[in-house]
Each structure stands twice: as structure tokens, then as C-alpha cells.
């Protein structure tokens, strides 16, 4: 089989799978189900191969075989405990290794959360709320006032959101605390809306990419040659 023919077959398969996946926009059907399971199967196979080549082979097999770190073989029975989840009698053994990994993952997530958000908390606590006349940019003096105004807005929204999540006292509908809490809720709704819009834009970018592929697929097949 020539290289051009192989390229044509690949493009045709890409067109068929794209149309099959997007057929769900009409209604859920067997064609969509087939390509959905095909995609999941390919993704699962790729994940297994990537896990072996990028993780197990480089961090476990090669150090054990080539570098003489024989004690790494002890990780094999520990990893095999995962498969006891399929046993009704010995399922408790799988919970041991799952609990260990969940604890390790929770610790790593907490460490990552602290490393990511603690500097932001420090930055929020040290924001400049007053204009220093000695540090005003002479070329763009308005920039200093805009920065301070932005910092005040940031602190107001931060305080309102924290008040919204403060449940230690009753927030009456007519009180000032309730109004601040409501402002915090609206601020969060705006932020969530912006995040949702960003997600939609990302999905639209993927859709535009597939539409571009479908439109230019005939050109790709014709340029592949015999």
C-alpha cells in the first residue's frame, strides 16, 4: 500500500469517526454508541501503553533490571492488591492500598493547594490601598489611581465572598451583613459565568477544528496522490 493511499484511508476514517460522534446532535443512536465505545477502547489502550512506557518501565522495570534495585519487586504484590476489588471475600485487601493512595493523594493535593494559594493570600493581604504621591508614575499618573481602585474593588469582592460563606451567625434579610453576603453571591455568579463562558469557548475551538477538518478533507485526500 502506497503512502498516498494510506493517508487517504486515515483521512476517511477521521471523517467517518467525526460524523459518527457528532450524530448524537440529532439523537442518540447506534452509530454514536459504536464510535463512543471505539474511542473509549482506544483511549484505554493508549493509557495502558503510556503508563507502561512513561511510568512503570522507566521508574520500576529498568531500575530493577538494569540498576540492580531488586527491592522494587516488593511493589508488585502491593500493586496486585488493587485487583482484589473484584473479590467479594477478599475485597478488604483492596481497600488497604486504596486508602494508602488516597491518603498520599490528599497530602499532595493539600501541599499543591497551599503552594498555589498561600502566595495569593499573602499578595491579597499586602495590596496597596492608598496612592503614594512619591511613587506616582509621572508619564502615566492615572495608572497609580487605577491600580488602587482595582485593589479596593478586589478587597470589597473578597470580603463580600468571605461573608457569604460565614455561617457562625444568622444573616437576616434586612441587615447590612445580608446585603454584603448577597453582593458576594452575585460576584461569584459573575465569576462562574466567566468560567463557564471560557469553557464554552474552548469547546467551540474544538468544534471549529473538526469542522475545518471536514471541509478540507477532500483537499487532503486529493493531494495525497496515488
Average of per-residue pLDDT values: 84
Report strand %. under 5%
Low-pLDDT runs: none
**What is the structural class?**
mainly alpha
Number of helices: 6
Rg, nearest Å = 28 Å
Total number of β-strand segments? 0
Q: How would you spell out the order of helices and strands?
A: HHHHHH
What is the helical fraction, as a range of percent? over 70%
Largest sheet: none
Distance between the termini: 10 Å
Shape: extended
Structure, briefly:
75% of the residues lie in helices and 0% in strands. With 226 residues, the chain is mostly helical. The protein has a domain at 128-216.
Blueprint of the fold:
Elements: H1 3-22, H2 30-66, H3 75-80, H4 91-125, H5 141-164, H6 176-223
Helix pairs in contact: 1-2, 1-6, 5-6
Q: Which descriptors would you attach to this protein?
A:
single chain; mainly alpha; 75% helix; 226 residues
